[in-house]
Amino acid sequence: MHPTITNMIDVVAKGEADKIAPLLAEDVTFMPPTYYKTWTGRAPVAAVLGHVGQVFSDFKYRRIMGEGNDWALEFQCKIGDLDAVGVDLITLGDDGLIAKFEVAMRPHKSIGALRDAMNARVMKDPSFLVFKDALS
């Protein structure tokens, strides 16, 4: 397995943005499952993923598929008392850092709970005022 993927598995579930950031390319793009917009840039994406790691509980990767620069990591977690499953679709750049990170999840009710929990957290995080231009 690629070392970036191995490291990501260790840090994403913990929600530690400072440990996630070094795994991300400077111009990384992140497509969340909660809306059809894209976050761009290492600092904003690390912040978003850090918050997600705090919202999810009982997070674990079930299957890891891929090779080279293209990876799919199937996960399961809880959002409050709701169960969710999803897939992290990750593309690594030639430098081995995460260049693209897209998340697909189900069921719909759990995605709504994730959106609500993330909005509540982000509204309390003053750094997101700086990051608003990173969303397109």
From TrEMBL:
Q: Which InterPro entries match?
A: NTF2-like_dom_sf, SnoaL-like
The uppermost taxa in this organism's lineage are: Bacteria, Pseudomonadati, Pseudomonadota, Alphaproteobacteria, Rhodobacterales
Give the Pfam families listed for this entry: SnoaL_2
Q: What organism is this sequence from?
A: Sulfitobacter marinus
| Signal sequence region | none
Q: Where is each SnoaL-like domain found? A: 6-100
Mind telling me what this protein is named? Answer: SnoaL-like domain-containing protein
